[in-house]
Amino acid sequence: MSAFPKWPSVADLVGHTPLVRLQRLHAGRNNHLLVKLEGDNPAGSVKDRPAFSMIRQAEQRGDIRPGERIIEATSGNTGIALAMAAAVMGYRMTLIMPENLSDERKWSMQAYGAELILVTKEQGMEGARDLALQMEREGKGRVLNQFANQDNPLAHYQSTGPEIWEQTQGRVTHFVSSMGTTGTIMGTGRYLKEQNPAVQIVGLQPEEGSSIPGIRRWPEAYLPSIFDPAGVDRVLDISQQEAEAMTRRLAREEGIFAGVSSGGSVAGALKIAAELENAVIVAIVCDRGDRYLSTGVFAV
């Protein structure tokens, strides 16, 4: 009798997500607009990559051991991904997030067994980050700190960037990503620039007064320390209305059911495409739309 095959674990399924072309949202002028479907990761977002990276690297350094408690502030996707990774790797997980974010995110974290602490809308992510560090000082667990942890962009340098380069056969000319913790754009952008310095790295942030889940315009004191402005060639402001409208169009015209930050990313990519000819533009679709249903964004 032959030996059983080595079946993969959930952790082995992170990454290697599809890169697909948009069919009806035309980029024009012989441009090619491609989107990377990060919702195909096991916990449903691009954050699965840094979640496993941060835990694995901390383990290898001896900073944490299975059975210990991890604490992290999150707006949603990183928390869901960390809760999943903690379940796979044998850690206890405490997540801190603003109360005004979608119920689906809260329920997903708890489904993976994480303890959830909510801060007020007014405290926001800044308050969540402060509380996580306070709890660490009090000895209640270890903070991975996605905002200052170089293992976050490392995950994208080692996986997202190489995948895009291979999937486009080195033809990518522009990479577009919404910016939250900035790990995706920092790691992916660095890898692509090393392959071809002419590749343009474009970041998206919400315009003043707009609230877009997963994208932030940080106060200076809370700007993620992993962010290096020199790694981004151009930053575009996206309105909440633009991001939400494109999110609905992606679902209704392309069959791509994604979140609002993904809508912002594609809206930004189309703005860039309007200025270009013969470009290969890759945008990150960072998660799935099912965790936004209760917000009403798809009901318009």
A few lines on this structure:
With 300 residues, the chain is of the alpha/beta class. It is built from eight helices and ten strands. 36% of the residues lie in helices and 17% in strands.
Could you list some keywords that capture this structure?
300 residues, alpha/beta, six-stranded mixed beta sheet, 10 strands, 36% helix, globular, amino-acid biosynthesis, cysteine biosynthesis, EC 2.5.1.47, cysteine synthase activity, pyridoxal phosphate
List strands and helices in order, with pairings.
Layout: E1 19-21, E2 32-37, H1 48-61, E3 69-73, H2 77-89, E4 92-98, H3 103-111, E5 115-119, H4 124-137, E6 142-143, H5 151-167, E7 174-178, H6 183-195, E8 200-206, E9 234-238, H7 240-254, H8 260-273, E10 280-285
Parallel strand pairs: 2-10, 3-4, 3-6, 4-5, 7-8, 7-10, 8-9
Antiparallel strand pairs: 1-2
Helix pairs in contact: 1-2, 1-5, 2-3, 5-6, 7-8
Protein name: Cysteine synthase
GO molecular function, one term: cysteine synthase activity
Organism: Marinospirillum alkalitolerans
